[in-house]
Design a protein that fits this description.
Blueprint (H helix, E strand, L loop, with lengths): L6 E2 L2 H11 L6 E7 L2 E7 L7 E2 L3 H16 L24 H5 L12 H13 L8 H9 L12 H14 L4 H13 L37 H4 L2 E2 L1 H13 L12 E3 L3 E3 L4 E5 L2 E9 L4 E7 L4 E7 L6 H9 L2 H5 L2
Parallel strand pairs: 1-3
Antiparallel strand pairs: 2-3, 2-11, 4-5, 6-7, 7-8, 8-9, 9-10, 10-11
Helix pairs in contact: 2-6, 2-7, 5-6, 6-7
């Protein structure tokens, strides 16, 4: 399937998509991907606008992990301390493979009063709570306790994983992402801004559920876990390459252990059974955005939903992939 087949959807498809997403998403974009190419719809903005994709960033990092293993740069049993300056802290002994499946024992966020203040500022004023540099992340990681290995979703874990992979390749995460995924796949508008000044002029400003503008979630530290931005065209192309096997690190999609109620997880990517079909997916959320990408790998189909409002699009994503897809494609 050629990712160059992406085209913008027509008015009838736009109307159908809006009916699925509802009025809570006035600025959104959707891609329906299949063997014949992709149809995309963008409304409330333009196709070249980029959205924060939130934790779908972890999916990119999972691919980089699987690719690094294939290259022989890391092994699943390598530890964070092998690549990051953690000075013998408890986190230094964590194995990379446990980070990819949220089984490392790390908390969701670092044990830090700065993190608590950031969460409060996000809630009150829409301030970005994730602006740390890599050095600041290392300081936080050195003082964070590690609990027992159990399923525990961790942004901190994927931040450390991504930067460990970059260190193993003697580069930065931002450059690793470009050299190994976005560059080779032609994702020209997919990137990880470290500062607000690095956001493209066409980058959208997200809003809270109540309509308040939110600061962009930029930061060197957060990039591997939730700091990537992209356009709907790039995300449609990305989904296409995952489906046809041309994306680097595709083994990340394959489940390796149970995760959640009846689900399984590979390297970040979660697989569940919905209406008798296996769906491999990841979602994302930031202060002002929500996102969802789902793949039916057996059928060779996928859906991407991006919204510039902090209201979940998960249910709409599943519905578009396994429910209303045929009706929409004939709209």
């Amino acid at each position: 399937m050629s990712p160059d087949a992406t085209q913008r959807g027509d008015a009838s498809l736009e109307t159908a998509i809006k009916s699925v997403l509802g009025k809570q998403h006035p600025v959104a974009a959707v891609a329906l991907v299949g063997e014949a190419g992709a149809r995309t719809v963008t409304y409330g903005t333009t196709p070249d606008s980029d959205f924060e994709i939130g934790s779908i960033s972890k999916g990119f990092t999972g691919l980089l992990y699987a690719d690094a293993i294939a290259r022989g740069e890391v092994t699943p049993d390598a530890t964070l301390g092998d690549f990051l300056p953690l000075d013998g802290a408890p986190a230094s002994s964590i194995r990379l493979k446990t980070l990819t499946t949220h089984m490392s024992g790390l908390p969701r966020l670092p044990d830090s009063t700065h993190v608590l203040r950031g969460s409060i500022e996000l809630w009150r004023h829409g301030i970005n709570p994730y602006g740390e540099t890599l050095d600041e992340l290392m300081t936080q990681a050195r003082t964070t306790a590690v609990g027992k290995p159990r399923p525990r979703y961790s942004n901190l874990g994927f931040e450390l994983l991504g930067h460990a992979l970059a260190s193993a390749a003697a580069t930065t995460y931002r450059e690793l992402l470009h050299k190994r995924i976005t560059g080779p796949l032609g994702l020209e508008h997919t990137y990880a801004p470290a500062t607000p000044q690095q956001v493209r002029p066409t980058g959208l400003v997200g809003t809270s559920r109540g309509g308040r503008n939110q600061q962009a979630w930029t930061g060197e530290a957060i990039a591997p876990a939730g700091g990537i931005r992209s356009t709907i065209g790039d995300m449609a192309r990305f989904a296409s390459t995952l489906l046809d096997g041309s994306a680097p690190g595709g083994a990340a999609l394959d489940p390796v252990i149970p995760f959640g109620m009846g689900g399984q997880i590979g390297a970040a990517w979660i697989t569940v059974t919905a209406k008798g079909r296996e769906v491999t997916f990841h979602n994302g959320g930031t202060g002002g955005f929500r996102s969802w990408m789902g793949l039916d790998r057996r059928a060779g189909t996928g859906v991407v939903v991006l919204s510039a409002t902090a209201v979940s699009v998960d249910r709409a994503g599943f519905r578009l992939l396994i429910g209303d897809r045929k009706k929409l494609l004939t709209a």
